[in-house]
Amino acid sequence: MSSTQSPQSPQSQSSQSQPQSQPSAAPQSPRPDGTSGAAGRAAGTPLRLRRAGIGLALAALVLAVTAAFDVGDGPLLRIVLAVLCGAAALVVQHLAGLSRQLADQARQAGETRAVLDGTVTAVRESLERHSADLKGAADQRAAAPSPQPGGPVEAVAAHRVERVTSDSIPEQTRRSIAEVLTTGPDILQTFARAELERVVRHMADLNNLTAECAGENHDWMLSLTHSTERSIFATSTSVDREFWNSEPASRYLQAQREAIERGVVVQRLFLLESAEMLDDKLLRLCEEQELLGIELRAAVMQELPPHLQRGTTSDFILYDEGVSFEIEQDLRDVNVKTRLIARPGHVEQRLRRFRELWEAGMNLRDLETRVDDEEDGAWMVDV
After folding, report:
1. Are 137 and 157 within 8 A, CB to CB?
2. Sign of CA dihedral 239, 221, 294, 301
3. Which of 76, 111, 146 lies at the terminal end of a domain, its last residue?
């Protein structure tokens, strides 16, 4: 009996040494090589059978050896020894599997940390380049004849340049990034990497003082509102009328209210295509926003002077007179693209356009009178 069982044990051990690491980690999450959890569970059943077979083979071998050499006073002691040896074989196999599983997890963690280090390095290099560009622009403006003391772009550059350094990513943030990239399901880790890559791309775009994304980016709008320190100048066209009843609009108005409480001036100009849009709905919207501290005016494009009717009528928001947040519509008046533009010439053009339209608009009191006259049919426009 010993001659038939002893060669079986080494073969079984060698056959289970290679697939050991894959099934041990598979039930928890999909593996990097694409093996799913279901496949891991399917492979785990033969592995358990092989382990049990090795344990039984060892127990039978011990029982045969003790019987051959007449060990002990009776069969009970031999059976106990055989069971203990079989159980010990199962425990040793299980511990060996855990050791290989921990080694695999450590290897995966090392690979993830390497990816994280590369991402952090890319973000840091982007910030350093941006800081160098700002410092160079500030030096050039300082060397040139003072164009406009206290100008908006110069003030923003001088205020921000010292705050953008290579250490702008806090250590706690780095640790949080490392944790999300090394724990949890693989789908969460993949999502986190994609978000980091998206941020790096935006950092690279912002080095050229412009960035864009598809659709209407409410996150940019809210982040800029929270970051603003001095002023927000916004236009709102008929495309936005439905926006003010949405959930993002509630968060946006709350963010503007908080900005007003810290001293930010918020002005909003409603641009109307025709006098037919002067109604109680618009008046209630203006009154609601005025209660938040927002300065409001409205202008009917058809009634403006010809030189003001020309030019852009798309929605844009100016933050601290340094960044223009713009939304592009298609022919169906669907918001298809969002742009951030910080080029000084473009921002100054938008600022001039807003001020001209603001001066030509009606304040809330004039708007109330105009709405009443429109409802009574008493308003006439000179042609």
Report:
1. yes
2. negative
3. 111
Q: Could you give the number of structural domains in the chain?
A: 2
Tokens of 310: 């020309």
Q: Where are the alpha helices (DSSP H) in the chain?
A: 2-5, 8-17, 21-25, 37-68, 75-143, 152-160, 171-182, 186-206, 218-227, 247-261, 280-290, 306-309, 344-360, 364-376
Co-location of 225 and 96 in the same domain: no
CATH of the domain at 219: 3.30.870.10
CB 157 within 8 A of CB 134: yes
Q: What is the biggest distance separating any 2 CA atoms in the chain, rounded to whole angstroms? A: 123
The owner of tokens 């951030």 is: 340
Q: Are 221 and 325 in contact (CB under 8 A)?
A: yes
Q: Are 221 and 209 in contact, with CB atoms under 8 Å apart?
A: no
The span from the CA of 350 to the CA of 341, in Å, is 10
Locus of tokens 């001293």: 263
Please give the chain's pLDDT, 383 residues, in tens.
Answer: 434 444 444 344 444 444 444 444 444 444 444 444 444 454 556 777 777 888 788 778 877 777 776 666 667 766 777 788 878 877 888 788 788 888 887 887 777 777 667 766 766 676 666 566 666 665 665 565 544 444 444 444 445 444 544 455 667 676 777 777 777 788 888 888 888 888 888 788 888 888 888 888 889 999 999 999 999 999 988 666 778 888 889 999 999 999 999 999 999 999 888 777 778 888 888 889 999 999 999 888 888 888 887 776 678 999 999 999 998 877 777 778 889 999 999 999 999 999 999 998 888 788 777 777 666 655 444 43
How far is it, in rounded angstroms, from Cα 349 to Cα 153? 13
Single pTM value for the model: 0.55
Q: What is the DSSP letter of 209?
A: T
Q: Which residue has the tokens 């603003």?
A: 228
Same domain, 98 and 220: no
* 97 and 213 inside one domain: no
